[in-house]
Amino acid sequence: MTEILIIDDDEIFSKQLALYIDRMGYGSQTAGNLKTGLAMARGSNFDIIFLDVILPDSNGLTGINKLKSLISNPEVVIITGDGDIDGAEIALNEGAWDYLVKPPAYNKIKLLIQRITQFRREKIKQNQQIFFTREGIIGESPQLKETLKKTAKASISDGNVFITGETGTGKELIAKVLHENSHRHDQPFVVVDCTNLPDTLAGNILFGHRKGTYTGADQNRSGLIKLADRGILFLDEVGDLSSSVQKSLLRVLQEKKFRPIGAKNEIECDFRVVSASNKDLKDMVEQGQFRKDLYYRLVVFQIDLPPLRRRTGDMKILLNHYIQTICEQMETSVKGISNDFVEMLECYDWPGNIRELINLLHLTIANAFEEPMLYPHFLPKEFRIKILQKKISNTTDEEDIRSKVFLTISKASAKNFLRYKDYREYVNNLMESKYIDYLSTLPIKNVSEICRMSGLSRSRIYQLFKKHKKNIL
Length: 473
Known about the structure:
single chain, alpha/beta, Rossmann fold, Helicase, Ruva Protein, domain 3, five-stranded parallel β-sheet, globular
């Protein structure tokens, strides 16, 4: 039976909705705040959670990710009396099923529950039928599982796939997993490094040449596209392609034909394109830096890789895996890890992601030498300094805000006393300015990623930067 949780501080509304759900034959429970709701959800397997936005202890939107990361992976439906466009965008970006404004029509609630119930039944069947190998992919976080779910779906099809993610998140690894799970798994997987594809050599590298075409061409040579025949052509960092190479590649994708340099006739070639980039191709299209028609050819499926800092709970799993691997390579005993060692690594933002973590562990294990346990003092000095500076900076920012607010209150008098509305606006502006400063310090130079991380819409991001007279990125 479908189990449903209602998290809403409006007792009358919650009881009425719960009664209606019970009459439909489903199970229901209610919670008056987010903390209680999370505790109940951790103790039971709910299929659907109706979540209010304005709760006594929190903004409900901040709880979507926490609720969806539970073992039962419930579908979250936002239901609020204070609907707004930004809130709806944030909710859907965070993975909410729908965004309803109170009072909702009960027939719509009924249809919604029926659809979600059917969806979850079909999902269970699909998960039982699909055999998916994930060799080399380490982690069990909800964020990573969502990525693997998309990869599994894309592997069944033959449409082109675009993988996006920061440097070091494992884009090529995901491409290989997709290849291994597709019907082309026994065919070639050919990598094209688009960052090292100069215009003068691109034609030769991609299309090949015929014997005698130019001095030194003493035999026919196949290009990378021909080598990928019946397999997968992986375009790594496709955002770095020059405009001329983009044009040449577009025609090949459209026709699945190409002409080697010096050849009279075109050659047909059957291949699937998987591309990847740490750049925002949609932004590049808007700025005229990437062909719009090529973009739509490449992006049939899109797989977004989560950065390491957002992979909740994966740090310890990754550490255990890579420490064992590195210790075996170094021919030393496998080392344990202290809790404060894990906590320190979880404090870091990891701009280089998994690649940076592996490099750091090599240095740390070398520093520890024959010690059986890894502690924070074995970490490189530069790394520990960064963590310390971050902690001090965060503390200073909090104290700075507190001191400014305190100063404002202390100056208040009967004549210039701040009304609640004005005081709230002052504190809100101060917080916004600090938050924009924080966004500006992030290593990401990508508006879409900033939107995803902050939970704000693109228009809201630009509005805040303009309001506080900051230069965006």
